[in-house]
Amino acid sequence: MEKASTRIKPLAATDSRSRSIAFIALSIAIMAVSAWITVPIGPVPFTLQMFAVTFAILVLAPKQAIAAIAGYLVLGAIGVPVFSGMRGGIGVLMGPTGGFLWGYFIGVSLAVAVLALFRRRGIDNFAVGVLCGLIFTAVAYVCGWFQYMFVAGVGPFESFLVTVAPFVVVDIIKVVAATAVARTVIRAVPTR
After folding, report:
1. Is residue 4 part of a domain?
2. What is the pLDDT of residues 100-147, one digit of tens each?
3. Position 16 in a domain
4. Nearest-CA neighbor of 85 among 130, 9, 34?
5. Which letter does DSSP use for residue 183 in this model?
6. Domain range for 183
7. pTM score of the predicted model
């Protein structure tokens, strides 16, 4: 006969899993709300997504951060209006600005890997947080720049002027702000 303790998960494991799911869901909600705050300044709108995604990279465990961005993209792809301008659907992912969204997934994956390397070496300071946010942002820019160039049928320089140049300074500020907020939240609410 099987022991009861092997059939029922320990309470601590269940609590940990529930907590992880709650943090992922909350991060997805923050990403969606940050995308709805839109200032249209051309084909690529200004949003708070770089702030929200950088925040998630820094406060969540690596697997949680990847799950959060993947969940966000899946919800948007199936039509839930989580993308900028309260839009959703595969058409947004395939459109001129969809490269940024694909880039979010690739950028998050790379940034959390770099962050994990630093943390394994016992280095987890403000500069590391900013570096990881900038890595994420750079990957999103490259993917957004490339897809806009391809879908809009413009040259590399014109694509850069539309997709990257107007956002660099503001996005650096968002990364720094997200790092400051994330470090405060980590001290107040252990998420890992």
Report:
1. no
2. 999 999 999 999 999 999 999 999 999 999 999 999 999 999 999 999
3. yes
4. 34
5. H
6. 12-188
7. 0.87
